[in-house]
Each structure stands twice: as structure tokens, then as C-alpha cells.
Amino acid sequence: MGITTSNEKTTIIEGRAVLGIEFGSTRIKAVLIGEDNMPIASGSHDWENSLIDNIWTYSLEDIWKGLQDSYQKMAEEVRQKYGAEIQKLGAIGFSGMMHGYMAFDKDDTLLVPFRTWRNTFTEQASKELTELFDYNIPLRWSISHLYQAILRKEEHVSEVRFMTTLAGYIHWKLTGRKVLGIGEASGVFPIDINTKTYSDSMIRKFDELTASGDFSWKLADILPRVLVAGEEAGVLTEEGAKLLDVSGQLKPGIPLCPPEGDAGTGMVATNSVAQRTGNVSAGTSVFAMAVLEKELSKRYEEIDLVTTPGGSLVAMVHCNNCTSDLNAWMSLFKEFTETFDMEIDMNRLYETLYKKALEGDADCGGLLAYNYFSGEHITHFEEGRPLFVRSPKSRFNLANFMRVHLYTSLGALKIGMDILLKNEGVRLDQLLGHGGLFKTEGVGQKIMADAINVPVAVMETAGEGGAWGIALLASYMVNKGEDETLDEYLEHTVFAGKIGTKMDPDPQGAKGFDEFIKLYIKGFPIERAAIDCIR
Residue limits of the Carbohydrate kinase FGGY C-terminal domain (predicted)? Predict the structure, then answer.
């Protein structure tokens, strides 16, 4: 049970409430939590990236405007609900889209426009660094952006004195501290999970690789310092307080936790930071995070390695496509009903047809579909063409049709997760699912459990999102017990007693999904032909 409104007001006035702000790709959200770690106020600001000179970016003006607007809207909700002004806080945390590139000179001036994770012109750098380190370095990682700038002989590189991420930039400007949480840092440069900082051997290799450039810096000199969850990462300066709260009400001196990336805050918000746990987010895209007990035996281009905010190694399987094609078919069915003057609510349509899928054959009756609106790196397609294919012998009915489109939404994810679970023997006690695929009770959850062959849980709090996750990290920093780990704090203090549902994989369903994935892989030449023939 949450605390009462009067208690929440007292918590706010006495400065014990905790604030988390996350910069997502389309929304900046501020969440204020009370002493039970549940949200008591929020505010958000919508924004969009811009394509300028073929680079996806957000301007510094938009960054600060969005931060201040989301904070002001949260503060206004506090005034309306509790009749209080925020002057003090127990702690603050900032989170943002991982990766990307923000480079600054000796005068702290941004050298080139912020290059977000969405930019994919770093292919040469990614490939060369992956070979050099024998460690998968994705296109979107910060080190890929830096090295690509070196390869392109960009003039600004010689002037770099500091590079960071969006979350790291905000934190630096509000505290004066050039630091990153370890989860965010693991998307900048590979982490040594034993030392809990950047890999020293890989830093030396990078410096040797770039020595001919005769730069005045070494890589270690320009990277943010790495901190783990629970460490204090500075306090809000007087200048920082004015940047965050333009009304001037907020006082300096508030402690901040290490800035984290959206992957890390997602793990926290779903209580998925302990080893042998993981979470899977399924919406427009789909990705799964599995917390590992040990390092993988070799590198895989399909698997990204990052860490939890506490520093445990995490394998990440990220797929570009999930529900877009499924949603397109649902819109077609909606148009069909409207043609006959039938008014059917979209939520009811989704629920009815999703549940219809459960009546289908476990292997989808021989139907095949690809949901590739865009390319899919796990299956090595640089472009995509949505496809539906069947043979005259296929069992073509509505249940199998719906089931195959649910299956294919997880097809690429299944291939990546099979590498972990079957090739590497990774053990997972459960995955926690969140996102639109799980909205219809029991359907997406069952399909996911059968696909991965791991129990899948869904909790109501999973929808609170990354802003809540970074607020929890800030709360952990100031409220943790002596020697209490992050996973212990989440399990016993935040999520204790939270009701969720867990669904085990069905042996017949798991076998059916394995049969489907064999056909899915066998049919890749069909997808390739569609890409070649349909422009």
C-alpha cells in the first residue's frame, strides 16, 4: 500500500523525495518517488531527433529545454496535488539513450553536433575494433564513433579533451563531475568486470592503433570515470540547480547517483539485475537482456555485452523488428470491419485475435512470415520486406495466421537467444516481459516463454519505465543498508510483495516454435529474393 497524500506532502517538504529523469528517443520524463519508492508525481516533454547533414542529432537547446520543461511539469503536478514546492530532494539521477558521441574541447565547447546511437556510418570502425579487441563493438558504441571520426580524418579529433554520452553530459553540467555509471560506460568502451572499469588492455591496443595520428591525448584521459551503483557521483551545484529548475526554488547540495543508460534503468525497473535473471522488451523493436554468471566462450556479432548498474556482465540481443508488421495486419482487419459498418474497438480487436492465435497449431501449420520492415543484423539482412508465405499443404486458417505473425515477431530474437541458451549454456531462471506485446493477458507471455523456453513473468510495475528505474538507483544510493547489494535492495525493499504472473514454457509449444524456426531459417532465400526484386 502506498503512503497517504499527507505523508507524501511531508516527504516532499522535508526533502526526502527522490527524482529520476530519463532522456528517451521521443520523450524526456521526470518521475518523483516517495519513501515507498513508488511514483508520486511526474512530468514529460516530447521531442524528436533531427537529421542534419546526414547525422541524427538533438541540439543542446532542445536538450536543456526538454530537461527544464519535464522538471517544471513534474513540479507543477506537485503543487496541484500536494500544495508544496520542491526545494530539497533526497537524491537525483539522470539516464539517457545509451551510446552516441559528445566530444568537447579544452574550453568545454561541443566540437561537433551530438551524434546519437541511431547513426550507423561507423561500420568500418566497428569492424576494425571488433577484430582488434576480439570483442564485439557495435556500430552505436561511443568508441566506434570516435574511431570512425579518426578514420575520416575529422579535424575536431585532435581537439578532443573529453567525450561522453547524453546522460553523462547532463550529469557533468549539473555537478561538475565527469563520470558514468558502469552500465552506461559499458556502451562507451568494453568493461573489465573484475576491475569494474574500462579494459586496460583494450585501451592500450586502441592507443597503439591511433599512435600515428599524433594526438595530444590518450584514450584514458578523455573518457569519463566509471562508477558502480550505490556510489555517490557528486552533488547539484548552484549553477546546476538553476539549469534544472529555472524557477529558482531548488537548492544546491543534493547528491546525485551515477548517470546510467536506458538499458540499465530498464533492468532496474523490471527487477532484472541479479544473475540468471533477465528482461525482454517487446514493442516496435525487441531486445532481451540476460545477466550472466560468467563470460561467454567467444565473441558473437549477434550478441552485445554490457553490464548491469552494479557491474554484472549482461548479454544483450537486440532486434530492429517486432510488432510493426503485426500492427499493419491488425489495421487491415480493422478496415475490413469498417467496410461492413461494424464498430470494433482496437483493444478488443487485438485481444480477440491474439487469443485466437492460441487455438492454432504449435508449429503454425506450416505458415511462414517475415516481419522485416527494416534490416535485421542478427539474420544478416541490411533491408527488410514484410512477407507472408504458405504452401498448398499449409493449414491456412485465422488461428495459424495470427500465430505465425506472433511467432515471427520473435524470430530474430529466438535465433540470438538460442546462441546464449543452447550454444553457450546460459541459465536463466526467468525473463521479465514488458512492452506492447504483453498487453493482452497471457498471449504474448506464452508465445515468449515457448520461443525462449524460459519462464516469463509480467509485473504491473514493469510499465513504470526507465525514469522510475534511475530514481530507484538514486534511492538505492541514499537508502541502502550496509553492504546491501543492488539486487538485494530491489528484491527486499522495492519489489517485495509486488504481484505479478509467471508463465512456464509449454513443452508442446516450445517444440512447435523450434519447428517454426527451422522453416524460418530455411526460408531466408525468399526474403533475400524479395529484397532484390522489390524496391
Answer: 279-477
Q: How many CB atoms lie within 10 A of CB 465?
A: 24
Cell of 231: 556510489
Q: What is the mean pLDDT of each successive set of 10 residues along the chain, which is 535 residues long? A: 69 97 93 96 94 93 98 98 96 95 97 92 95 94 97 96 98 98 97 96 98 94 98 98 97 98 91 93 89 94 94 94 94 96 93 97 98 91 94 97 98 97 95 87 95 91 80 98 95 86 95 98 98 93
**Phi-psi label, residue 37: left if phi above 0, alpha if psi -120 to 50, beta otherwise:** left
**C-alpha cell of residue 438:** 504483453
Q: Which domains does the chain have, with CATH numbers?
A: 5-261 (3.30.420.40), 324-408+508-533 (no CATH)
* pTM of the full structure: 0.88
Say which residues have a Cβ less than 8 Å from residue 168's Cβ, sequence separation at least 6: 102, 178, 179, 180, 184, 224, 259
Residue 49 is which amino acid?
N
Tally of residues, the chain: 535
User: What is the Cβ-side half-sphere exposure of residue 521, based on CA atoms within 13 angstroms?
Assistant: 11
